[in-house]
C-alpha cells in the first residue's frame, strides 16, 4: 500500500510516517522544504501547488495540515478543498487529521464541544475554522474521505499506550472519565484506519482506552 502524508514535517505528520513505515507501508512525505520525517520518499512541493499527477501513484493521502496563525486559519478549508479536488472521482482515500472542537456533546447533535462554557477561548478560532472545513467536507460525495478527530486533550508528548477506543460523532470518555489521547496513539489509530478502511465518508474519533 502506498500512502502520501501531506505536511509530513508536522508533529502528527512525523508520527503517522513513523507508524506507517513500522507497519510496512510505502510512505512518501509531501513537504515544502527539507524532509524531516522518516519517509524514504519525498515530494518537495507546497500543498497548494500540488497537481493531480503528483498523487497518481498513491492509494491513500493523509492530510496532516494544521496552522495556528490567525491570518491562515481559513486555509483549513482551502487546503482541504484543494486535496478533495485533486482526488475527486478517484478510488483513492483521503484521511484527514481533524480537530476535537466539532465533536458533539449531546445525543441530539445540537451542541459541539467548542460551544460549551469550559472550552478555552484561545482555541475557539482554530476549532471554528476546522469545524467549517469538516462541514464542507461532508458535502463532498466525489471523494472517499475519512475525518479523524482526536480526544479533547490531545497530547503532543504523551506516551503511546497502544490501546484506544474508537468513537464517532460524539465526544467519548474512557473508563476514567477522560477524553485524552497522545499524538502517538492517534497516529496508530489513523494507520489502522488506512489499513482496515472501515469508515468511508464518515467522521470518527479516538480516545485512550
Automatic annotation (TrEMBL):
Q: Name the domain of life this protein comes from.
A: Bacteria
Which InterPro entries does the record associate with it?
Answer: NAD(P)-bd_dom, NAD(P)-bd_dom_sf, Polyketide_Oxido-like
Q: Which GO terms describe its molecular function?
A: oxidoreductase activity, acting on the CH-NH group of donors, NAD or NADP as acceptor
Record-annotated NAD(P)-binding domain positions = 8-192
Give the protein name, as stated in the record.
Putative NADH-flavin reductase
Amino acid at each position: 500500500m502506498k500512502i502520501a502524508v501531506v505536511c509530513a514535517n508536522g508533529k502528527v505528520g512525523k508520527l503517522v510516517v513513523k507508524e506507517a513505515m513500522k507497519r510496512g507501508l510505502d510512505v512518501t512525505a509531501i513537504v515544502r522544504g527539507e524532509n524531516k520525517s522518516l519517509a524514504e520518499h519525498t515530494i518537495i512541493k507546497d500543498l497548494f501547488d500540488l497537481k493531480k499527477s503528483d498523487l497518481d501513484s498513491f492509494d491513500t493521502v493523509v492530510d496532516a495540515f494544521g496552522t495556528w496563525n490567525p491570518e491562515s486559519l481559513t486555509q483549513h478549508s482551502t487546503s482541504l478543498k484543494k486535496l478533495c479536488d485533486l482526488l475527486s472521482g478517484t478510488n483513492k482515500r483521503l484521511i484527514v487529521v481533524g480537530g476535537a472542537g466539532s465533536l458533539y456533546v449531546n445525543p441530539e447533535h445540537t451542541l459541539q464541544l467548542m460551544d460549551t462554557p469550559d472550552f478555552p477561548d484561545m482555541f475557539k478560532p482554530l476549532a471554528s475554522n476546522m469545524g467549517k472545513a469538516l462541514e464542507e467536507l461532508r458535502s463532498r460525495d466525489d471523494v472517499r474521505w475519512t475525518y479523524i478527530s482526536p480526544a479533547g486533550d490531545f497530547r503532543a508528548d504523551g506516551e503511546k499506550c497502544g490501546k484506544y477506543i474508537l468513537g464517532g460523532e460524539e465526544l467519548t470518555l474512557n473508563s476514567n472519565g477522560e477524553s485524552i489521547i497522545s499524538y502517538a496513539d492517534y497516529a496508530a489509530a489513523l494507520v489502522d484506519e488506512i489499513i482496515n478502511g472501515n469508515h468511508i465518508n464518515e467522521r470518527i474519533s479516538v480516545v485512550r482506552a
